[in-house]
Amino acid sequence: MGVPKLEATQENNKTSGKKKATRSVLLGAAFLMATSSIGPGFLTQTTVFTQQLAASFAFVILISLLLDVVAQINIWRIIAVSGLRGQEIANKVLPGLGVVLAILIVMGGLAFNIGNVAGAGLGLNAMLGLDPIVGAIISAVVAIFIFVVKEAGKAMDKFAQIAGGVMILLMLYVAFTTSPPVGEAIKNTIMPEKISIFAIVTLVGGTVGGYITFAGGHRLLDAGIKGVESLPEVTKSSVTGIAVTGIMRVALFLAALGVVAKGLAIDPANPPASVFKLAAGDIGFRMFGVIMWAAAITSVVGAAYTSVSFIRSFHPAIEKHKNWIIIGFIVVSTVTFALVGRPVTILLLVGALNALILPLALGTLLVAVYKKNIVGEYKHPLWLTITGGIVVVIMGYLSIQTLIEQLPQLFK
């Protein structure tokens, strides 16, 4: 009688261990997506828009989060149910489209990673007083180490969770110290005094644009979480990622709003650092360094991992040596920053092209979800198709407008 009981206990332990591992991956994917979107640009955009719109920025945050949730739930579910990466789905919808999508993603990921590496260097400069280039190199070594260890996926999940947790706690503390007018912010969430379409587009593009859209979905595929049976967990994970991003956005908004409401002048040279310094003095400035470094280093990891995931299916050698290619991606970004700095024209051009990735990718996946050779018998919820289509149209139109406005200025 003892043997069956022992076998049952062992089986229960295995099941419990598998559930814990799955929960860890789901949370890791959510934080990978969230921390990928919370980079140096995120900190600057949120502060600048708060300065411009004051309490009305609360409405912009609400609308952008709703658009983000629709985009992420659609993309994560379609990736999971098809069991294919974004570029593989696109190639099945239209041969060659996956290659175009991969080129755009890799170009954007590499260009923005130069900015992420620069942000990591600036974070260590504010935190410890290190030279930004030295700080960038040290940060690159930390990022590379994650992909050298045997269980790179688990290491990446844990790193994203810890860094994300630290950022949220520090940001909430600073928001509390500035004593923002919370009542005014709540009122403007529903009835804004002014509305900025540009701010909404910028926030959506920064949160779910480019490689960020696929970061969590591809991570779940790599961990073997796919199929119709996994959809409840996949959906929950995607919403968790947006929720983490939202908490960070709201906390930074309230911190900046508290400073603006007091009539204090924010330094245009470094808006987010200025907010932290005005809120908590030199300690606040050091805290900004910690947040900037954590935001930048997790974005370096997310950009490299997701960009390379878009070319892995193109050749068996890439799949075999994927971690070394990711490391090479980080090295190229760091060397470019150390030798050239941030190539402004390239960053602006790729930024304009990056705005097209969300409508192109989401539109392609919405077509794919109605093809049986891609998703089998799966029936996509109609409300997700309709809301996803609305996001595609809105972001497509505004992205093309952005391109038309920016391209002539870039080639003057």
UniProtKB/TrEMBL annotation:
TM helices/strands, residue ranges: 24-43, 55-81, 93-114, 126-147, 159-176, 196-221, 242-265, 285-311, 323-340, 346-370, 382-404
GO biological process, one term: iron ion transmembrane transport
Keywords assigned by UniProt, alphabetized: Membrane, Transmembrane, Transmembrane helix
Recorded GO MF terms: cadmium ion transmembrane transporter activity; manganese ion transmembrane transporter activity
Keyword Mitochondrion belongs to the record: no
Pfam families the UniProt entry points to: Nramp (PF01566)
UniProt topology in membrane: Multi-pass membrane protein
PANTHER family on file: SOLUTE CARRIER PROTEIN FAMILY 11 MEMBER, TRANSPORTER PROTEIN
Descriptive protein name: Divalent metal cation transporter
Organism ancestry: Bacteria, Bacillati, Bacillota, Bacilli, Bacillales
